[in-house]
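Bug #77: duplicate submission created two jobs. Keeping one. Sequence:
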Amino acid sequence: MKRPQALVIDDEPDLCELLALTLDRMQIDTQTCGDIATAKTRLRETEFNLCLTDMRLPDGDGLELVEWMQVNEIGIPVAVITAHGNVETAVRALKLGAFDFISKPLDLTALRKLIGSALKLQSSNEEVCAKTGLLGESSVMTALLALIDKVARSRAPVHITGESGTGKELVARMIHDKSAQAEGPFVPVNCGAIPSELMESEFFGHRKGAFTGAVSDHKGLFQSAEGGTLFMDEIADLPLAMQVKLLRVIQEKSVRPVGAAKEIPVDVRILSATHKDLRSLVSSGQFREDLFYRIDVIELTVPPLRERGEDIDILTDFMLAKLALQLGVAVPQLTADARQKLSAYRYPGNVRELENILERAVALSGDQPIAAADIEIRDSMDAASIGSASITPGADKPDVLGQQLETVERTAIIEALEKTRYNKTAAAKNLGLTLRALRYRMQKLGIE
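Kept job's structure:
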């Protein structure tokens, strides 16, 4: 079997020799050169599997080469060797399309992991992804899917923005599935759901006896995601003290469990998401600016459903088929009026709301085709006003009726939870809702 080939660009002969020796032990052939001009010639003439470049070179810097490779569509992973602690350069390299970066002095264990991931990425990209995580043929979804393919090739942190219910976690899973970390674990965590006093232990782990109740060693989320992806949903909910510790972990690529004396190296890709505006939180001092620039190296925005109306039929058919499989019944059919009613709605709750609407419709229709009367949605004018992203001039009066209805709904849900000792399944049954519908209402009303 033909051995992979790597190109190493560095003007220090000792470093080139060290890298070549390390790569040879990994069964990888190596070519070396000491300047950008020679590197460009080699990249045009030879088919390499990966590229390692130093930052400072006699005729330019490594970032120039990374940018040139992207412009000329030389589709191999390129990693940049940076000076220790030069975070700004590392972030710039990732933004320009570098696969990853590694700091001097070189940690050979980290280098081997980086090279292994780069080779996995190339082989996985040659396979056709048979399982589609996100559905849609609208222009905004086509653009999003193309961007997901692009960012999956890098190890750069990605921040996913979008309204609640748009499918941010689905985007994160798709990035993971298409990445070099696909064989590793995908570990999702809702940052707002962890009590602040337990947050450090949950993320970084703890040692036995570190605090009262620590009866054994505990592996944190970072170590659980080793070799894979850690997806931090609602990252805006992290307290400032935790933001400082998270920043250090991202920069140093190591964690120190509570009660431990030494840090433990971790190989984890960070994906994050929130429905809040992080930039405004940075301006108001609620979110650290330095952490924002580390997690927001690449930003993806998931469009709301109202901006991709042509995808509603595709999503509807997919969700009905999924429901039918879960229930063990034939796929429910929709009347023309029902489809028209679904298409006319603005979906303030986005894809998650469409799913809830269809669940109710399937329950109401029985064995008959789903008719328009089976689809329980808000009045179209009300939905349009709620779903609109802009503010209509003069529309500054409070929605008194809406507030009253939310208050009644919140009270009813809280009472049902209290009566069932916070058993959500039992509470949903008492309220005449599905468990999924109850969770959706709780999230929308901010009930913890």
